[in-house]
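In this supplementary section we document a worked example of the pipeline. Step one takes a protein sequence of length 206 as its only input; no multiple sequence alignment statistics are reported here. Step two produces a three-dimensional model, which step three serialises into structure tokens for compact storage. The input and output of this example are shown verbatim.
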Amino acid sequence: MKMKKQYKKYYKFFKKYFYTILLVVAIILVIPMLRYTFPEDTVLHGAAPEISGITVNLPIPNGSYTVFDSQNKLILHDRGISNTFNLPVGVYRIEFSSLYGYSTPKKQVFTVRPSENVTLKGDYFPIYNSPLLGVEVFPQNAPYIIFDDQNKVAAEGTGSQFFHLPPGNYKIIFQKLQDYKSPGQQQFFVADRVVTTINAAYGKIK
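The serialised model returned by step three reads:
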């Protein structure tokens, strides 16, 4: 009889606090799941590719190059003495274009690693006794374009510098420059084994 009363007492207590007990049990079961299912260092989304800086240095302004990835896909084509750009981590190949009067640099395979800058050099060397054109211009930031006798761009430059060009007839056009008057254009002939010189000066606009 005594056990029956005690049983009824526990039953009433359990019935009264059933939902409270159920909630407490549920919380106890969920806490470990929250702790271990999604740790702090778990990545739940795709990370952005890491980018590194690439610098290409050439000894001449008209040298150009093309960069390919490991799948032989063309990534970029550029020219100039020094250029810097960014590439994702991976393996790449750089190939240099041939340029008259210069030896062509060998292609290079390089690896881009996370947070690591890469410097590449394209060693264009002048070929002895090839025709040489010297452009002397003032001011030194004056831009110009050289065309061959087919009206195709043979070279582009800024300021005084030398170019190796095949023998033939050419035209140089000096481009616009702020606060200066362009000297216009000149026609000239490049002879074999001879140094040809072009002189030009921009007039200051008052």
